[in-house]
Design brief:
binds zinc ion, alpha/beta, single chain, four-stranded parallel sheet
């Protein structure tokens, strides 16, 4: 073999191994976090999510394939605030991957970067239903929190891979700019409906409604995580009639029976909003998620005028 060929071979081998070694393998609990991780990670990371966006993130059925993925991860990004408490902790333990155990640097709790609402004051008891005791974990539904998650991830990825810090910082800056532009559009579309009262099924939307000026006055669930009861449903119907409330926002994984019957009695509309990326075919990334929800809301308000 000639000296030149050897040199080419060595270069190729070096190139391939250094590239493979440099790509961070990132797992996320949800598709929202995966979408943001892809935005700031670009081709320096490979990203996969455990839960799919059409699943209820409080209840995800563990599969053996999740374990295989977690075993190979350099980092695991979670929503936190106990959203995944029913399914994720045993998977992390069973993965036996030291990099992603809760005390390890590769365990990234995205809630620590974000503005959290509904942090309960005083003692949380079972009588209150499935109240999230550390605050509302559906916080990614405010683009400002999406921006905070992106910044947090860019910083973490830079710590894990210092040689690429400039690229992560640049990707974050590009995401921030694109999100700021998009957010202006969403806010402008929602502006005519500022202050409108709505009912939501679960407490998934406080951050979203805060951002876009909607006023959530009650829930189809009588208490968080507790299915509808006839008495509470009757109260809702009376409230909606009295205050002229027309929209009931429902996550795609809840039964539509009660919301539909309420809407029929008050001349209202059930709006199946997507709480997560991957909830349906249209919501393929973090931007498309808000595009979809904002457009659907605007159309729904126009219908019930
Ligand atoms: Zn919840």
């Amino acid at each position: 073999m000639s000296k030149n060929l050897l040199a080419v071979g060595a270069l190729l081998a070096f190139g391939i191994t250094s590239h493979a070694a440099s790509k961070l393998n990132v797992m996320t609990a949800t598709e929202d976090l995966a979408s943001i991780a892809r935005e700031v990670g670009g081709d320096l990371v490979s990203v996969d999510s455990i839960a799919r966006g059409y699943q209820d993130p409080h209840f995800v059925e563990p599969k053996p394939s999740f374990l295989l993925k977690l075993q190979k991860a350099d980092a695991l990004v979670v929503v936190g605030l106990q959203l995944e408490i029913g399914w994720l902790p045993p998977l992390i333990t069973q993965s036996r991957n030291p990099k992603i155990q809760p005390s390890a640097p590769g365990y990234i709790d995205a809630s620590t970067f974000c503005k959290i609402l509904e942090i309960p004051q005083g003692q949380v008891t079972r009588a209150m239903g499935d109240v999230h005791p550390l605050g509302n974990p559906h916080y990614w539904l405010d683009p400002d929190n999406g921006r905070r998650i992106a910044k947090g991830l860019a910083d973490k990825f830079s710590t894990m891979q210092p040689a690429s810090a400039a690229q992560f910082a640049q990707a974050y800056a590009a995401f921030d700019k694109k999100l700021t532009e998009a957010q202006k559009g969403w806010e402008a579309k929602m502006a005519p409906y500022k202050g409108r009262k709505v009912i939501t099924y679960h407490r998934s939307w406080p951050n979203f409604c805060d951002r876009f000026g909607l006023n959530v006055v009650d829930y189809v669930e009588p208490k968080p995580g507790i299915p509808p009861t006839p008495a509470h449903t009757l109260d809702l119907i009376n409230l909606m009639k009295r205050d002229g409330i027309k929209l009931i926002l429902v996550e795609p994984y809840f039964d539509l029976c009660t919301p539909n019957s309420i809407a029929a009695q008050v001349g209202g509309q059930v709006v199946v909003l997507m709480p997560s990326v991957g909830g349906n075919k249209e919501t393929t990334d973090y931007f498309k998620l808000f595009d979809y929800d904002v457009n659907l809301l605007v159309n729904s308000f126009l219908k019930v005028k």
